[in-house]
Amino acid sequence: MKIKYSLFILVFLFVGCASGPSPKYDVKKADSNLPVVVGGISVWSRGVGSGTGFDLKNEDTGEFIGYTGAKSFFLRLPPGNYTVHSIGSRQGGTGSKDTSFAFTVSDEPFQYIGTLVKSFHIGAGFDVLGRKPISKRTYGVWEPIFIGGSETRKPGEVQAPFTQVFVFDDYDKVIKDFKTQFPEFSTAKFTKNFIK
Questions:
Q1: What range does the domain containing 119 cover?
Q2: CA–CA separation, 180 vs 167, rounded Å?
Q3: Are 117 and 167 spatial neighbours (Cβ–Cβ below 8 Å)?
Q4: Predicted confidence (pLDDT) per residue in 114-160, tens digit
Q5: Is residue 90 part of a domain?
Q6: Which range is the signal sequence, renumbered to this chain (predicted)?
Q7: pLDDT, mean over the chain
């Protein structure tokens, strides 16, 4: 019984960590006229798992777009204005303390928006290699937390623990990952359209 239960948990975690985008935004399943938007997100090199996630908000429509997956992400997004609403963490979802990261998807067919890196991943899953960040924001835990049956913060309120999140240019690695996963786009030329 313990073995079956352990296998179920393992399969659930594996599938959950590799779920990727919904079909509406999947590179192969979504409308092929939509631009391909790629980027990266840091993950911790120590401990269990190599997946992470984030939620984008389409500021033009109000729609939230979730992604759970690996270090490089690939989406088809309608042109428009977006914010990084939350970034996954061990404490739960995180939101920006002040102003969220933002970016605009243009009509260009292939766009690289940068790599999101949490400060505690630098040197432990992401090497800076002397590069300076393009931008940075402070994100904190926004989900309500219960201690002894009492809620300690309100939903939507961003509180400690806080961490700095940076955007770095990791173009070569992310584009290599994309072209390895999607060889049919091996000649694609990407424009840099960074998250700010």
A1: 19-192
A2: 23
A3: yes
A4: 999 888 778 776 788 888 999 999 888 655 555 555 555 555 567 77
A5: yes
A6: 1-20
A7: 80
Structure-token match 């290699």, residue found: 129
Residue 6: inside a domain, yes or no? no
d(CA 59, CA 47) in angstroms, rounded, equals 35
CA distances from 28 to 75, 86, 191 (A): 9, 25, 20
| φ, ψ for residue 68, nearest 5 deg | -130, 130
Length of the chain equals: 196
1 is a domain residue: no
Residue reference for tokens 């429509």: 61
- pTM assigned to the model: 0.79
Please determine, for residue 13, whether its predicted confidence score (pLDDT) is greater than 60: no
Which residues are CB-neighbours of 21 under 8 A, at least 6 positions away? 65, 66, 67, 69, 73, 74, 75
How far CA 73 is from CA of 42, 91, 126, in Å, comes to 11, 22, 16
- Is 7 domain-assigned? no
What residues are paired with 78 via a beta bridge?
A: none
